[in-house]
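User: Fold this; tokens only.

Assistant: Input:
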Amino acid sequence: MQTTPTPNLVPGLEGVATLESGAAFSCARKHDGTIWCWGSAGQAQIGIPEGSSDAGGDNERHPIPRQVAWLRDPRSLAVGSSHACAVLADRTVACWGDNSSGQLGHDPQLDPSCGSGHECNGKPTVVPGLASVREVALGGINSCAVRDDDTVWCWGTNTNGVLGHDPALDGPGSMAFTPTKVAGLSNIAHIAVSGNFACAVGRDDTVWCWGANSYGVLGLADGSTSTHTPVQLSGL
């Protein structure tokens, strides 16, 4: 692994509006609406060039940013550990990269195996059944979105109830690749998603969290407790 303490200019990247980084890759959305990614492509997380017929996963380094094709005027960008999503002009969401837990919003069995044997897809695909999206946030192997009606919808792995519903309702591996509404949340302004828990900020400035309570991140005294039901943090 090569490291450097000196900042380096990313080659060929100008006019950047927003920047997001995952576990071993980064993506930028330019002012012209295009999205460019670089770094690891083991799970096709930097996308594939237009016209490519493969899934896009390899174990090579990609230090030169390349444009993520097949995106219709993306308005915002979010990056997880090894996948990425964009809110498009029509307020739908398109995702690409690692799909081992359905975090792209479709059945992983529809995708080929990449890098480390995980299912992946470098071509952005629209998440079915999800419209009028205002914001999207990604965790390690899960994804969530806020719709214009201020509701929150999540999909991917549901370990510790991070998707906002009982993991016992899901299939093998607590996986749900169809977006489901997080019950008990309304009037939500913004969300933040981690690997094992998620939090939302209400329009009344309250904070609600759900999932694993490691180190008390949910604001619950019992650090071993996990809950799929959002709980309001006290003192905020």
